[in-house]
Design a protein that fits this description.
Elements: H1 2-10, H2 12-26, H3 28-39, E1 68-70, E2 75-76, E3 85-91, H4 96-112, E4 118-124, H5 129-139, E5 146-148, E6 163-167, E7 173-178, H6 186-197
Parallel strand pairs: 3-4
Antiparallel strand pairs: 1-2, 1-5, 3-6, 6-7
Helix pairs in contact: 2-3, 3-4
Length: 200
């Protein structure tokens, strides 16, 4: 027993690091917190790109066949979103990177939710949608809760969570980011502001 006490005194910092590492491995919120700290450095930031030009015209997203429904089961008319800047975020409550970036998504939503030219589609992909609803409620998030009402086009989502897509007013994909990012940076707000100024 005495040898154990001596070992702990000599290796106290190692013991603390091991305990912290185990907590981060096991606890989703601890993982999310750590990822959020990394994202806040700016090294994972996503940025909006210029439209991609093809031989004849720019690449546009087709809204046809993409349907979502809200928590009351009401289908969202996606075609009505044309001529608006659309922020789409695919997420799940069990996903630590989703949890890590969600506070920044909420801040972005709070900043632009009253802008008539901007729409937020935060699409929950939990197998049990009650888990997604519960996660939003527990954390005080007020972003729209939407779930797929059919197939999700591959051009938007191919299986990685989180995935974020920004469409400009012409329906062009200006951001397609897989993985964690911080959307609450002034640099990202400026890019959104530029898209909002553009004519459809």
């Amino acid at each position: 027993m005495e040898n154990l006490k001596i070992w702990v005194r000599k290796n106290g910092s190692t013991v603390v690091l091991i305990i912290l590492f185990i907590i981060i491995l096991v606890n989703k919120d601890a993982k999310a917190w750590l990822m959020r700290q990394v994202a806040s450095t700016g090294i994972l930031n996503a940025s909006i790109s210029e439209p991609k030009e093809t031989k004849n015209s720019s690449v546009k997203f087709s809204y046809a066949g993409f349907m979502l429904k809200n928590e009351d089961g009401k289908i969202t008319d996606i075609s009505a979103l044309q001529n608006k800047v659309v922020f789409i975020n695919f997420w799940a409550s069990w996903c630590p990177p989703c949890r890590a970036e969600f506070p920044s998504v909420q801040k972005l939503y709070d900043r632009y939710k009253d802008n008539p030219d901007m729409v937020f589609l935060t699409v929950n992909l939990d197998d049990n949608i009650a888990l997604g609803k519960s996660y939003l409620k527990e954390n005080g998030f007020t972003v729209p809760f939407l779930v797929p009402a059919g197939n999700i086009p591959d051009v938007l989502y191919s299986g990685s969570l989180p995935t974020t897509v920004v469409l400009d007013k012409k329906g062009e994909i200006r951001l397609h980011h897989k993985g964690l990012a911080d959307y609450s940076k002034d640099s990202f707000y400026k890019q959104i502001d530029e898209l909002l100024k553009q004519n459809p």
